[in-house]
Design goal:
Blueprint: H1 3-6, H2 13-21, E1 25-26, H3 27-33, H4 39-51, E2 55-60, E3 66-71, H5 73-76, H6 78-90
Antiparallel strand pairs: 1-3, 2-3
């Protein structure tokens, strides 16, 4: 199973997934939610997650055109896994 080692790799990746668990987001919405995340790293993480089949990228027509990112069914299945990790990390000793 390739997603286990591939998807969570790199700093910020789980936070990007966390934001997308709440619904589709644009780059500007992700930047607003994660202001310390640089544009370069965000692009890298989104590309990595898309390559792992976790994130979809939808370009919507208009002026200007917009791009929305969302989780695939495979990506949504990361929700309980990440929640368990966050719960475990929050436990005292």
């Amino acid at each position: 199973m390739e997603i286990a080692p591939a998807a969570p790799r790199g700093r910020w990746t789980t936070l990007v997934v966390r934001e997308l668990l709440g619904g589709d987001r644009s780059c500007s919405e992700l930047r607003e939610a994660l202001p310390r995340l640089s544009e370069k790293v965000m692009s890298e993480r989104l590309a990595q997650l898309a390559g792992a089949g976790v994130v979809t990228r939808e370009r919507r027509p208009g002026r200007p055109a917009t791009v929305r990112y969302g989780l695939t069914p495979r990506g949504r299945r990361l929700g309980p896994v990440l929640q368990a990790l966050w719960d475990w990390g929050a436990q005292d000793g």
